[in-house]
Amino acid sequence: MIELEKLANMVDHTLLKADATKEGFEQLCKEADDYGFKMVAINSYPVAMCRDFLQDSEVHVGAAIGFPLGQTTIETKVFEVQDAIKNGADEIDYVINIGKLKDGDTDYIREEMKAIVNASREGGIISKVILENCYLTDEEKVAVCEIAKEVKPDFVKTSTGFGTGGATVEDVSLMKKVVGDEVKVKAAGGIRDLATALKMVEVGAERLGTSSGIKIVEEYRNLH
């Protein structure tokens, strides 16, 4: 089995609720630091606050962009990325324009990805592309992953956690099969226990977006 420290360092510790408060973000950051998680996954407004909370920590601050629907313009998403970088973000997770993909407009998806990945690279931060697989056919998932192989964001990601479904073993396997070693895969949405987390890692996920990271780590500890 994977070592606990390595597993914990795959976790993007998540707080994306509309009613999240300063106290909640402070607790999130403390937990991420205490447990050795990789990142706190938050909306863009609290980025500067969480950067302050984590100023002496190795935990990254990650901003959600175009979240959770993806229905903003490319220019808006790029501005969000630049603003998040200015406020101290180390990583961004952006939602593709799902409707454009459903329309078959892969040129738009490519243009959007290039613009956001370039803005991230210019800021020296990690970029992740959220597909929101629950709304997509396998062909559409493959199409985005093929574009990602070309554009080279750091990660492709299964879900926002706000759609009609989250990460599945089948989707992670499919995405990994397409991107290979060119791009990493992040599984997110519905990962609430150790067994699920380990299945995702087994089929190729290198990050896990979850608000159940503490439960997963404690389950692991109880096994040993």
Q: What does this molecule look like?
A:
This is Deoxyribose-phosphate aldolase. Pathway: Carbohydrate degradation; 2-deoxy-D-ribose 1-phosphate degradation; D-glyceraldehyde 3-phosphate and acetaldehyde from 2-deoxy-alpha-D-ribose 1-phosphate: step 2/2. GO terms for molecular function: deoxyribose-phosphate aldolase activity. By secondary structure, the protein is an alpha/beta fold. Helices cover 47% and strands 17% of the residues. It has ten helices and eight strands. Strands 1-2-3-4-5-6-7-8 form an eight-stranded parallel beta barrel, surrounded by six helices. Strand 5, helix 7 and strand 6 (155-157) form a beta-alpha-beta unit. Helix 7 (138-151) runs parallel beside helix 8 (169-179). The longest helix has 17 residues, at 106-122. It is globular. It starts with a helix and ends with a helix. The model has no long low-confidence stretch (mean pLDDT 98).
Beta-strand fraction estimate: 15-25%
Largest sheet: 8 strands, parallel, barrel
| Class from helix and strand fractions | alpha/beta
Order of strands, widest sheet: 1-2-3-4-5-6-7-8
Query: What is the residue-averaged pLDDT?
Result: 98
- Count of beta strands: 8
**Rg, Cα atoms, Å:** 16 Å
Query: H/E series, N to C?
Result: HEHEHEHEHHEHEHEHEH
Number of helical segments? 10
Question: How many angstroms separate the termini?
Answer: 11 Å
Principal-axis shape equals globular
Fraction of residues in H or I helices: 40-55%
**Unreliable spans:** none
Pathway: Carbohydrate degradation; 2-deoxy-D-ribose 1-phosphate degradation; D-glyceraldehyde 3-phosphate and acetaldehyde from 2-deoxy-alpha-D-ribose 1-phosphate: step 2/2
Keywords: Cytoplasm, Lyase, Schiff base
GO molecular function: deoxyribose-phosphate aldolase activity
Family: Belongs to the DeoC/FbaB aldolase family. DeoC type 1 subfamily.
